[in-house]
Write a structure and sequence with these properties.
Order of helices and strands of chain A: EHHEEEEHHHHHHHHHHHHHHHHHH
Strand content of chain A: under 5%
Largest sheet of chain B: none
Largest interface: A-B, 28 and 28 residues
Number of domains of chain A: 3
Low-confidence stretches of chain A: none
Structural class of chain B: mainly alpha
Largest sheet of chain A: 3 strands, mixed
Number of helices of chain A: 20
Oligomer: heterodimer
Radius of gyration of chain B: 17 Å
Strand order of the largest sheet of chain A: 1-3-2
Low-confidence stretches of chain B: 195-203
Helix content of chain A: over 70%
Number of domains of chain B: 1
Shape of chain B: globular
Shape of chain A: globular
Number of strands of chain B: 0
Mean pLDDT of chain B: 88
Order of helices and strands of chain B: HHHHHHHH
Mean pLDDT of chain A: 91
Distance between the termini of chain B: 52 Å
Structural class of chain A: mainly alpha
Number of helices of chain B: 8
């Protein structure tokens, strides 16, 4: 009998070198990476945790714990569903990379990153989860930089910020262990809470540690940026919830949730304001994600099971909007060579912006994907982003309507940014020669558009698994 | 042995801040790993300390090879209008500013070490941790290219390891930190601009 964690750790790691060797042949490489992640998603979402089943000729016990070097790995309900969702998104992403390359290293290192993130989710000890997350984040530096030469500030900033977040989190575990030996020393818990807040604030890009999100969005290939912001952010959020679940002294402290609310609100305000002022789609994507992540934290600040469900629903729906917008942007950047929608005078100085004029006529599906994904990140009705946002607004509409209004305005800032970009894309073309969109990539974008609209109209598609994840965290009453 | 090692760490970390030349900075980083290893022998098992020094040496080898390649490429492309990415010619005002910044930040580190002594480590080693962390942060703030910023980040991590090794003695954690250090060095090497190399290739 094979323990489930073994599959999740070993299979992507084993296939990563094969995918690397195949990187010059993009179809087999993308197909292998996509099939691997789809299999992983199937395992996580389809197999029961409580009993062994036969899969691929082996007997697999997905919920069976596994020991590696004295450390226990086990897949639990929340982790399994989260990983399944991440693998599913990764599968679509890897397949998309077949037609619109996101760099030679994206597929093999993406698989390694997923394996390390799985380890971070499954390992029982928080300290090692943080170390796995750190190493996964360092690996993503290579795919953010991609094949381009020359320095990228975003990549370096990301590396530095993630590395700065790790020491406080590691020291927190020591303080918590120490407090277990000295239960009367409550000062230790205070220090632990402060360090934990700093560590997670950096990883979740809470203002003033938010600079890396827009920098990564600007510097990385769009789909890579979406992959990093989706997968790593989901795992960080899960680790935070697991930590709150493990230590009741923390989850019972209302100040913790007050901090989450405040941090989230700052992110929503900064994200919305800066998105409003952007002149290129990459940075706009970064600030849109920042604002949306802020709303998630504001929801968590309510500290109720309904709020947790709303926050997790928003995380799941955000990944669809983010991926859709990134895919549309990837095609546009691939074909037009630019993503700047600066006004004509600025564009003349920079020699870039006008290239996007009229692109919507040549690349209609990609344009629709880019803008619809952006509007979803803004929480506009009929898009995937709306149900989560609406649930969050409802959480606050009676107790703190001003917070709901601020989040609404933040979304309006993001939506305005995308609509301004759309006006450039729809304007009369000034430069000939933008090729038609690639067929397969357009089909994938079209599928994502349908999914985005479908989730906007029928949020119950994802509500059940999200509800199951939320129910697995019993610390909120 | 502790006092000379701490003085050495103060000097090497400050050198990384003040000096722009990559050879000197890298030599200071190497010295820093050796001196931190010497201090660690008093806190943890000597073999573990030695392992950390060896990882530090590997990190320096990776950075040296990268910097040399880039430097050679840039020397070959001296006529190129592109600015050199890692060659460090420090002007006097720049040098004075960096020296003053290192001193002020160092003073702040000293003050912190006296008011907020680190637990589980002797006071002098706690001071070394604060000094390394503050200088590492300063390098990160002042650096304008990845190699230098990477040295700042590695200095910061060395400071953390010096402190954390006494708190967490698990060999798996030592292994993880070693892997992270080495991967950071590789990432820095990957990010270091290769404009010079490509210019040489064009010739």
């Amino acid at each position: 009998m094979i323990a489930g964690p073994l599959f999740l750790l070993v299979l992507p790691l084993t296939l990563a070198p094969v995918v690397y060797l195949l990187r010059r042949w993009r179809l087999p490489a993308a197909f292998l990476a996509s099939a691997t992640t789809l299999t992983m998603a199937g395992l996580c979402l389809g197999l029961p945790l409580d009993r062994p089943v036969s899969a691929f000729g082996w007997k697999v016990a997905l919920g069976e714990p596994m020991m590696v070097l004295g450390r226990e790995f086990a897949l639990e309900l929340g982790g399994g569903l989260t990983l399944g969702f991440i693998y599913l998104i990764a599968s679509v992403t890897f397949f998309f990379a077949w037609r619109v390359s996101q760099g030679d290293l994206f597929l093999p290192l993406g698989l390694i990153t997923l394996s390390l993130l799985s380890a971070a989710v499954m390992i029982r000890h928080f300290l090692f989860a943080v170390l796995f997350l750190w190493i996964a984040s360092i690996i993503t530096v290579f795919i953010i930089q991609s094949d381009r030469r020359g320095p990228r500030r975003g990549t370096l900033r990301y590396l530095v910020m993630v590395s700065l977040a790790v020491p406080p989190l590691l020291i927190t575990t020591w303080l918590v262990d120490l407090q277990a030996i000295n239960p009367d020393n409550l000062a230790l818990l205070r220090y632990a809470a402060v360090l934990l807040a700093i560590g997670f604030a950096i990883l979740l890009a809470v203002v003033p540690f938010h600079g890396w999100v827009s920098a990564v969005a600007a510097d990385a290939p769009p789909v890579v940026a979406a992959f990093v912001l989706t997968a790593i952010n989901a795992v960080v959020l899960l680790l935070m919830l697991n930590f709150l679940q493990s230590y009741p002294w923390l989850s019972e402290d209302l100040q913790v949730f007050g901090l989450l609310r405040l941090g989230g609100l700052l992110m929503a305000v900064v994200g919305g304001l800066l998105a409003f002022a952007q002149r290129d789609f990459s940075r706009l994507l970064g600030y849109a994600v920042l604002g949306d992540m802020g709303c998630t934290l504001v929801a968590l600040g309510v500290a109720s099971p309904a709020a947790l469900t709303a926050a997790l629903l928003q995380v799941a729906h955000r990944s669809v909007g983010l991926m859709l917008s990134a895919m549309g942007l990837a095609v546009i950047r691939h074909r037009a060579g630019s993503d700047s929608f600066a006004n004509p005078s600025t564009a003349l100085r920079q020699g870039s912006g006008r290239r996007l004029a009229g692109v919507a006529r040549r690349l209609p599906i990609s344009t629709a994907g880019l803008v619809l994904g952006g509007l979803s990140l803004a929480g506009m009705p009929l898009t995937a982003g709306f149900p989560g946002r609406w649930a969050i607004y409802r959480l606050y509409h009676s107790s703190a309507p001003s917070l709901a209004l601020i989040m609404l305005l933040s979304g309006a800032g993001v939506a305005f940014g995308y609509l301004r970009g759309l006006s450039t894309l729809l304007s009369p073309p000034t430069e000939p020669g933008v090729k038609r969109e690639p067929f397969i990539a357009s089909l994938i974008v079209l599928g994502m558009i349908i999914l985005c609209l479908g989730l906007g109209l029928r949020p119950q598609w994802l509500l059940l698994p999200v509800q199951r994840i939320a129910d697995s965290f019993g610390f909120l009453k | 042995m502790t006092a000379p090692a701490i003085v050495g760490l103060v000097i090497t970390a400050s050198l990384i801040v003040v000096v722009k030349d990559w050879r000197l900075s890298l030599a200071a980083l190497l010295g820093q790993y050796v001196l931190a290893g010497l201090l660690l022998t008093q806190l943890i098992h000597p073999y573990v300390a030695l392992t950390k020094v060896l990882i530090g040496d590997l990190v320096c080898v990776v950075l040296y090879l990268t910097a040399r390649l880039v430097s050679e490429g840039e020397e070959a492309a001296e006529d190129s209008p592109r600015p050199p990415s890692i060659r460090g010619e420090t002007s006097l005002p720049d040098f004075a500013f960096r020296l003053l910044a290192a001193l002020f930040v160092g003073l702040a580190a000293y003050s912190l070490s006296t008011h907020y002594a680190l637990p589980e480590v002797p006071a002098d080693i706690g001071f070394a941790c604060y000094w390394l962390a503050s200088q590492g942060l300063l390098v990160l703030m002042l650096a304008d290219e990845p190699l230098k910023a990477g040295m700042g980040l590695l200095t910061l991590i060395t400071s953390f390891e010096l402190f954390y090794s006494t708190l967490e003695r698990s060999l798996s954690v030592v292994g993880f930190l070693g892997i992270a250090n080495f991967l950071i060095a590789l990432a820095i090497a990957y990010l270091t601009p290769s404009t010079g190399i490509s210019a040489k290739g064009e010739r």
